[in-house]
């Protein structure tokens, strides 16, 4: 690869590059000149340096690039086939045709050093520097780390209760009723309190009452040229009915097929399980007792692989559905992935708990699934990319040295290095992992009280490994303003509703409770169902009554609005009285 | 009472009065002069006549009166005890101390004639003139009549299915499963479609994306003088903790006590019921078979009386809770009234259905309750006020004639007449009645298919009697802009959730379904519960997936916002480039 820095004529030392655009190797010179002119056209007014953080400047640059629109050009200069029409986003056209390979913000070495020191390099018991993270990476990522921290802290009481439970009641499978009640309350309160924390963070960062920007069509969206009914601009139009057909005739059946496959794999796992138990029963020694765990471990690995493969399929399908907006694409992707991952991870546990009603097997399965998936996750998420990154870094360093000799060329080197880094694909996978962990804990931790302890341990290392990978494994991502964790709040809330139902059912199944109704199962079931309905109603009332935004922030927001209204009134009245010059 | 029209010096014939302020008989002259001067102060710019409808002008006048604030006056002239402080609402102070008795908008005789003709005077099968109603009474009331109409139409299919059901399956108590399933789907779809209808109406009237105006403290709110943290103005402040104490230590126990009383009355009713059945069994003839209905009728009347008494108590208590905002007052009042009315009206039906499991008694009770309460309602709501009004009108006419001789003085006469008319207290009672009817239909109509027919008949007369009472029995109310039916949407949705649960339980109890599980009740219950959970989940997903605002309105709103954004951008850029003169 040849490296041409278009800024090489200006003074490199005093210049802090923010964003890198990587063009294809064989890009025509005239196209480059044209693009630079067009970008500089937009640059007239310049940013107020120092006033905005790096991350904000980068966000603005991204916005400016994304809204760079063709005027009268019929095609990209040098590329007669890359047709343009007035209003078409230039960057998207270049990107979709492979001329512009990528554009990404550059790391700021000094800020990064400072951030990573306060974040994960010193061993500390203090909280994460969320404001610094937000300053460097933007609100979206800072909210993720805020959530991770909050979730971990919220699990501590559960872990503390879980340890003695685990140590002293290990053989006493019946005593889980109290723990199930605790889980049930915990999972409801957890999310309500988070909403308030999230509002407090977002208020502090000024994004709480942010209006959604007008959304442009996503890069991959295609269709016949038509008119947007809202903007009146020319843009590709794709009939919604066609998309619906694709969703209901292809995507939905595909998801159902995958779910069936997942069930099939589950049944194979149960066959393996029985086979292992039989061998153990025939010949109980250490070797066969270890064998008991093998089916679960294999199943856990298979689950992770299936999740991974499905993820690619879901992305492909959702892309093919041709959604106009990024948000709609994301919603459909999240829905597809969540449904499958939920079934894939939890179906076997539900089956063991409610069809087989075997609490010993449930406990063993849960433990193996949880531990195996955590280990796999840490490896796949942090160690593997880190190791690949190191190998790549070394190669790049070597090549740079061969190319430049011993001359220092920090900027060019940095760009070269970061260009080859992996791209961070957003917080999707990180939230998904937390979602599944939340599921394990809130659904079934009453039969395996150590689950919370394991998740706390996992999340502590997760903070470090996520922090490390953000700073050193991935390209710096563009910062994205966010006022909350978006669709994930809904996903976690749905899980907490399922948790109420599940825990009520587990309580109903417990021998302890059953002992109260020795004669009639009917009465027991009716009472459990009644309690469950009351709890669900209570949960909804609670969610409704607890304000999502703390009182003092509500007052501040109201004050802001009142002041702006008063100012508007004054302006209007002076306008009427004096007729502005 | 002496009548002094302060406009009597201007030309009466060309002047259309909009709003009447009734001051106390012994109001000091200097206070009147001061108040008129202060009001005229505000009037400088005048309204663009013809541009706004009467109702809108009246709304503006009300707003102007409500925001008439004291400047430097220490007290109301002539009333040294009526203290004022800068920023205090003048009208509220006058009102709370009984100087200003009331202020209300006047009817416009010609518009009213036209409206009432197209609304209820001609016998027609066409829809109500919602746009005209909105024009004369404002959006809040028009939405109520829109809802009433929509509800009635939505019930027609149910009534049509109900009639043959009632005629041919009357003795066959088992065949209600299908009807229960229909109810279940109907109650969900009903509310989702209404949301879209309501959005369409509100969009047409321009109130759909209306921002809530800044809310002033309500008239009855009192407390030590302090500073409002939002506006910085001096105003009464009442600590929220004290209010919470009043709510939880007085209001909640009182409501619970009333609920207990309601249960007690229910038990007395059952005793009466058994006593009547015993008499009938001992000596079955026509007299005793009529006696069978007497307990239900008495109970229905007692329920209505208890609802009425409770209503007064709830208003008193909520007022005493001293809420700062009218909206918060309304929410607490609605909650109190709804909980009690729901229990009072439906507890006996639930008891009969699920504890006694006596479907024959349930049907009989439901029929008697429904018919009795409808008759009572129509009497209390329309005929009684109408009759009282006619008596009062005659008296006023007689007195006017005695006072003025035979001289025509239409304006003074109209003011005099309308002053003594009852005040319309808002749509609360009307919605409450519809809410209870919705409950009867969606909860239990499967065992008494004629319920929908009765409700349809009731609502047809309701439209006429409500229309009549709005036009001729009550003072014209101030129009109130509204974008939807507010808290009632939530109330109806809650009822529809209860309807799903109830109908599932009724299905589970039906002999038809029970026949499929001859051996085990347990299995039946588990299956019914599972189906109920799936239905509830489906209901929530449906509510989430169906957009509340129809597509074409969404596009129009987006276009509006886009255009205003573009206009803002242009304004900002010309500002930057040219530096406005």
UniProtKB/TrEMBL annotation, chains A, B:
Pfam families: Anoctamin. It is found in: Membrane. InterPro entries: Anoctamin (IPR007632), Anoctamin_TM (IPR049452). GO terms for cellular component: plasma membrane. The keyword Transmembrane helix applies. GO terms for molecular function: chloride channel activity. Keywords: Membrane, Transmembrane, Transmembrane helix. It is a multi-pass membrane protein. It comes from the Eukaryota. The keyword Transmembrane helix applies. The chain crosses the membrane at residues 141-164, 176-194, 247-270, 290-312, 333-354, 366-388, 437-460, 485-509, 524-546. Belongs to the anoctamin family. This is Anoctamin.
């Amino acid at each position: 690869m040849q490296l041409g820095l278009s800024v090489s004529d200006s003074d490199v030392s005093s210049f802090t590059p923010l964003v890198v655009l990587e063009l294809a190797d064989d890009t025509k010179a005239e196209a480059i000149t044209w693009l630079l002119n067009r970008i500089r056209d937009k640059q007239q007014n310049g940013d107020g340096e120092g006033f905005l953080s790096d991350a904000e400047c980068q966000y603005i640059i991204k916005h400016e690039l994304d809204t760079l629109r063709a005027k009268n050009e019929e095609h990209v200069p040098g590329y007669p086939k890359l047709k343009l029409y007035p209003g078409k986003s230039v960057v998207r056209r270049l990107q979709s045709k492979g001329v512009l390979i990528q554009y990404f913000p550059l790391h700021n070495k000094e800020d990064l050093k400072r951030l990573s020191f306060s974040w994960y390099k010193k061993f500390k018991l203090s909280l994460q520097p969320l404001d610094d993270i937000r300053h460097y990476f933007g609100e979206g990522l800072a909210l993720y780390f805020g959530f991770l921290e909050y979730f971990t802290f919220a699990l501590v009481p559960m872990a503390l209760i879980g340890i003695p439970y685990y140590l002293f009641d290990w053989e006493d499978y019946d005593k889980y009723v109290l723990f199930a009640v605790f889980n049930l309350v915990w999972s409801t309160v957890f999310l309500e309190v988070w909403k308030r924390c999230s509002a407090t963070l977002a208020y502090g960062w000024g994004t709480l009452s942010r209006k959604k920007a007008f959304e442009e069509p996503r890069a991959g969206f295609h269709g016949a040229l038509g008119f947007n009914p809202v903007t009146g601009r020319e843009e590709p139009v794709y009939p919604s009915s066609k998309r619906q057909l694709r969703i209901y005739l292809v995507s939905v059946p595909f998801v159902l097929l995958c779910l069936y496959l997942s069930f099939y794999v589950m049944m194979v796992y149960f066959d393996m399980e029985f086979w292992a138990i039989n061998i153990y029963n025939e010949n109980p020694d250490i070797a066969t007792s270890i064998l008991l765990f093998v089916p679960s471990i294999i199943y856990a690995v298979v689950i992770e692989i299936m999740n991974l493969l499905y993820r690619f399929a879901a992305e492909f399908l959702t892309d093919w559905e041709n959604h106009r907006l990024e948000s709609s694409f994301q919603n459909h992707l999240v829905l597809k992935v969540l449904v499958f991952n939920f079934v894939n991870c939890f179906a076997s546990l539900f089956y063991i708990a409610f069809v087989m009603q075997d609490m010993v097997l449930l406990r063993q399965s849960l433990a193996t699934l949880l531990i195996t998936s955590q280990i796999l996750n840490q490896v796949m998420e942090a160690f593997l990319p880190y190791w690949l990154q190191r190998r790549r870094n070394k190669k790049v360093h070597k090549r740079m040295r061969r190319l430049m000799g011993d001359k220092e060329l920090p900027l060019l080197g940095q760009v070269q290095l970061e260009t080859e880094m992996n791209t961070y694909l957003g917080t999707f996978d990180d939230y998904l992992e937390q979602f599944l962990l939340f599921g394990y804990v809130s659904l079934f931790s009453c039969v395996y009280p150590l689950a919370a302890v394991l998740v706390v341990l996992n999340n502590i290392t997760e903070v470090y490994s996520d922090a490390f990978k953000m700073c050193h494994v991935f390209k710096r991502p563009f910062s994205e303003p966010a006022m909350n964790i978006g669709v994930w709040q809904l996903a976690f809330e749905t899980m907490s509703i399922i948790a109420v139902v599940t825990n009520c059912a587990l309580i109903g199944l417990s021998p302890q409770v059953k002992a109260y109704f020795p004669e009639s199962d009917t009465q027991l079931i009716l009472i459990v169902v009644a309690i469950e309905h009351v709890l669900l109603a209570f949960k909804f009332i609670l969610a409704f009554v607890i304000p999502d935004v703390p009182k003092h922030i509500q007052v501040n927001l109201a004050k802001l609005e009142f002041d702006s209204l008063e100012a508007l009134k004054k302006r209007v009245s002076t306008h009427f009285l004096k007729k502005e010059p």
